[in-house]
Design goal:
Blueprint lengths: L1 H30 L3 H8 L3 H8 L7 H11 L24 H6 L8
Helix pairs in contact: 2-3
Length: about 110
């Protein structure tokens, strides 16, 4: 099952890279900073910033730290337990999707 673990790690890395680049893009937009301006602030080529912003799963912590430093921003990486999966509804009861549509929340212990 090593390949399954490797596949999960690759998916997680790709998701994390997308989150980071989406967050960085949002910060750039909020501050009115272009990618080429970010490149100048970082002391790298515009092509390097484009590579970073592509969401490549090989985005490094060093690259993120460099972008944050250039913008006077902070980067936070946290490890946490994912939320538990929703419990399936017993036969004949509303599932979580149905409960949401009719505006009620069902908790099962």
């Amino acid at each position: 099952m090593a390949t399954e673990g490797k596949h999960k790690a690759e998916l997680a890395a790709a998701s994390l890279a997308r989150q980071a680049t989406t967050s960085l893009a949002g910060l750039l937009a909020a501050r009115g900073v272009s990618r080429s301006e970010l490149a100048k602030l970082m002391g790298v080529s515009p092509g390097r910033v484009s590579q970073m912003m592509s969401g490549d799963a090989n985005l490094t912590v060093r690259s993120l730290a460099s972008a944050a430093a250039a913008l006077g921003a902070s980067v936070e990486i946290r490890f946490f337990d994912p939320p538990p999966p929703p419990m399936p509804a017993p036969h004949g009861e509303l599932g979580s999707g149905d409960a949401t549509r009719c505006g009620s929340v069902t908790a099962r212990l």
